[in-house]
Amino acid sequence: MRRSLRIALALAAIVGILVAGAIVFQRELGTWALGRVVASRVGRDNTATLPDGLHIVFCGTGSPLPDPSRAEACNLVIAGKHMFVVDAGDGGPRKLGQLGVPMGRIDGVFLTHFHSDHFDGLGTLMLLRWTAGTHTRPLPIHGPPGVEQVVAGFNTAYGLDNGYRVAHHGPRIVPPGGAGGVAMPFAVADKPVVVFDADGVRITAFPVNHSPVTPAVGYRFDYKGRSLVLSGDTAASPSLVAAAKGADLLIHEALQPKLGAIITDALAARGQANVAQITRDIRGYHATPEEAADAAKGAGVRQLVLSHIVPPVPLAFAYPAFLGDAPKHFEGPITIAEDGMVFSLPAGGTAIIRESFNP
Fold this sequence. Notes:
By secondary structure, the chain is of the alpha/beta class.
């Protein structure tokens, strides 16, 4: 007993000394720890080791509903030497920086439609790209008719701030001509239309069903025999199935109505009838996981990834509840996307590699 007591007292003394030391040297230890974190994260380029091919980095897999683990709609597509952002919802551009993506290398943005959760991070994206790359031309922002109004609004809103930054840092660091964005509208027809074709990269826009939101499109990316399709926001849409034929990867939005009904009922019970009605309304122009699986099967894609997750699903334990019967509708792999997740399609091959850029 005496020996055990001596050991316990000695251990307690050691712990006490360590705690006291940590308190006394808290400032120094905090500075050291922060330095280690900064050295490991700031300025890193996680895209540098990706092979030549087609890649998608999920920088926003959520919706307008509050979700601590998911930013609003945001996707980075890397095709060869090109980097494009598809939709730029709130929190998405900053998430790209956290994921070690070199913001100055972004070549352009493609917007699917003009719901605010798909473009309300655009100002941040334009600013981060400009200041990171010393660009002399504004960021090209592609989209259906209406993109001109959206881009003009952000350019106006950020006009004063852009001027302050040039005055502060100087035109060599932030060339005035590189601020903001330039709208690149394209016509939306009943059939797919090629909106970018260079360096072996082909981007095709196709109409989807998000009524009353019109126009609304999805995008197909093709590069060196690999292909991926982003649905944008849509209900079940035959045009999407046709455009996605034979793709390696289909990224499809998904809303699980059974889980959504839980939120609707809770809001109604708390007397928030207006918001409850909104949560009912949104079910009509989004696809269920089962409908997304039907699209994947109809298009003959190899893998299905669900994004724009509604309602928020904070725990992976609840993923089966979100998927519902989707696995019965599509025999291939189905993944619920998370922020930081990456899918790689190496050029000229058949592999689909899943990884993460999260620290």
